[in-house]
Amino acid sequence: MMQSVDIAIVGGGMVGLALASAFKDTDLRIAVIESREPSSELDVLPDVRVSALSRSSETILRNLGAWQGIMQRRAAPYVAMEVWEQDSFARIEFEAQQLAQPDLGHIVENRVIQLALLEQVKQQSNVSLFMPAKCASMAIGESEAWLTLDNGQSLTAKLVVGADGANSWVRKQQDIPLTHWDYGHSAIVANVRTAEPHNRVARQTFTAQGPLAFLPLGEENLSSIVWSTEPNRAERLLSMSDSEFSKVLTAEFDNRLGLCEVVGERFAFPLKMRYARDFVTERVALVGDAAHTIHPLAGQGVNLGLLDAASLAQQVLEVWQQGEDFGTKRNLRGYERWRKAEAAKMIAAMQGFKDLFEGNNPAKKLIRGIGMKLAGQLPGAKDEIMKRALGLKGDLPKLAQRSGIKSQTH
Ligand SMILES: Cc1cc2nc3c(=O)[nH]c(=O)nc-3n(C[C@H](O)[C@H](O)[C@H](O)COP(=O)(O)OP(=O)(O)OC[C@H]3O[C@@H](n4cnc5c(N)ncnc54)[C@H](O)[C@@H]3O)c2cc1C
Asked: Which positions fall inside the FAD-binding domain (predicted)?
C-alpha cells in the first residue's frame, strides 16, 4: 500500500526522532523509518554509549517535551570540567558556579535520549512510525520522492531526510560526495568504577597518544570513559583481561581517581571525520551524523546533530508557512548554508585541538601550557570557551532558545 506523507525521516536515532518531534504542533504528516527498535528495559549498569548533552541540547529537548523522560530514566549532571596534559603543567578548570549555571551539562545514555524522544513521537498523531523497517529503494521525482521499505510498504514524500547516521544510506543513494579523513584514532568506551568519587566533575587528559575522558555517571564512583588512541593499541587494550586493562587505565589517567576497575563490556569505534559536500539536494536533506562526524574529544557530535534537526524544522516551517514547496533544493539552501558553516567551524576546532595536543614536541608542549594558562587567566577567555561548549553561542535555532517555537498549523 502506498502512503503519502510530507516528510519521510530515514533513521529514528536521537537526531531523526528530535526532528520528527519538532513538527509536533503542526499538521505536517511525518514518517519515521527506523531499522532497529531500542529495548525499553534499562540495565542496572548504564549503556556504554553516552553523550555529554550541552545546554542548547537540553533546551531543544525541553522544548520538545522529552527532557522529563530523560531525567525520569537516567541522567547525570556535571558541575565542573578539568582538562590537563599528561607530564606537563598545562591544566585548566571550568566550574558551573563561575558562569552562574546550575551545571555544565548532562551525561546521558544515547538509548535514554532515543527512548524519551520515541515516547513523545508515539503521542503525535501526525507521525507514522515504521520500526523495525529499512528503506530498500528511493527514487526522486519532480514534486515528490518515492521510498520502498524492506517490508513491502511504499511511501511518497515531499522531502526525505537522511538521519541515518555516519554510513548514511540516503547519502549514498544520492551519491553525495564526502570529504573525509581518518583521525588515526579508535575510541574505546566502557564503564569504570574508581576508588575515589568523581564529585560530578568531567575530566579529560591529553596524553601523547590521544585524549582520555572520564564522564561522571549517576553513581558517585562510576564513570563512562572515552579513550581515544591509535587503532593497534586500541585492539591490544580490548584484548587485555579486565584487570590488565584496569591497571593500564589507572596509569594513563594519572591515578587521578585512584584505582580503576572496568565493569561490563568494552567497545572500540574507529574515528573518522566526515563532511558531506551537500547537506541538501532536490527533495533530500541530511542531518546529524549523516551530514558530519567529528572527533569525540569535545563531545559535540549529537549536540551539533540536534541543532541540525531544530534548524531544518525551522527552515521547513518558514517555507511551508509562505505556501511554498519545502522539498526543493533552492528552498532548503538556507538550512544548508547555516548548518554547513557551524559544522565546518566545529570540524576545524576539533582538528586544531587534536593537532595541538598530539605528540611530545617540546615547543608544542610549551605552547599548550601557555595556552591553557592564558585561557585560565585572561579576563573573559574562560567564559567564552565555556559558553561555546554549553552551546550558548553561535547562530541558534528558535528551538534551542528558551522561548521555543509556537504552535504552527497550516
Ligand atoms: C566514542 C564516541 C563518543 C561520543 N561522545 C559524544 C558526546 O559525548 N557528545 C556528543 O554530542 N556526541 C558524542 N558522540 C557522537 C554521537 O554519538 C553521534 O553524533 C550521534 O550518535 C549521532 O546521532 P544520529 O541520530 O545522527 O545518528 P545515529 O545515532 O547513528 O542514528 C542513526 C539511526 O538510523 C538508523 N538507520 C541507519 N540506516 C538506516 C536505514 N537504512 N533505514 C532505517 N534506519 C536506519 C540506525 O538504526 C540508527 O538508529 C560520540 C561518538 C563516539 C563514536
From this structure: 5-347
Which mutation among 106, 138, 164 tests ligand 1's pocket best, with the greatest number of atoms within 8 A of CB? 164
Pairing assessment for the beta strands 30-33 and 127-130 based on DSSP bridges:
parallel
Q: Which residues contact 300 (CB under 8 A, 6 or more apart)?
A: 54, 294, 346, 350
Residue bearing cell 535555532: 397
Q: How many angstroms is it from 264 CA to the middle of ligand 1?
A: 21
**Is the C-beta atom of 296 inside 6 A of ligand 1?**
yes
Pocket test for ligand 1, best of 289, 294, 339, 347 (most atoms within 8 A of CB): 289
- The Cβ of residue 156 has, within 10 Å, a number of other Cβ atoms equal to 19
23 in ligand 1 pocket by Cβ < 6 Å? no
Find out whether the beta carbon of 400 lies less than 6 Å from any atom of ligand 1. no
Sign, Cα dihedral of 249, 228, 89, 375: negative
Report, in this order, helix, strand and coil percent for the chain, each rounded to 5: 35, 30, 35
Residue 293 alpha carbon, nearest atom of ligand 1: 19
* pTM of the complete model: 0.93
Strands 201-207 and 178-194: unpaired
pLDDT in tens, the chain (410 residues): 789 999 999 999 999 999 999 999 999 999 999 999 999 999 999 999 999 999 999 999 999 999 999 999 999 999 999 989 887 777 888 899 988 889 999 999 999 999 999 999 999 999 999 999 999 999 999 999 999 999 999 999 999 999 999 999 999 999 999 999 999 999 999 999 999 999 999 999 989 889 999 999 999 999 999 999 999 999 999 999 999 999 999 999 999 999 999 999 999 999 999 999 999 999 999 999 999 999 888 888 999 999 999 999 999 999 999 999 999 999 999 999 999 999 998 888 777 767 766 766 666 666 666 666 656 665 566 666 667 667 777 789 999 997 544 434 33
Q: For ligand 1, pick from 21, 33, 35 the residue to mutate: most ligand atoms within 8 Å of CB.
A: 35
Fold of 2-73+111-180+273-398: FAD/NAD(P)-binding domain (3.50.50)
- Sequence length of the chain is 410
Q: Is the CB of 34 under 6 A from ligand 1?
A: yes
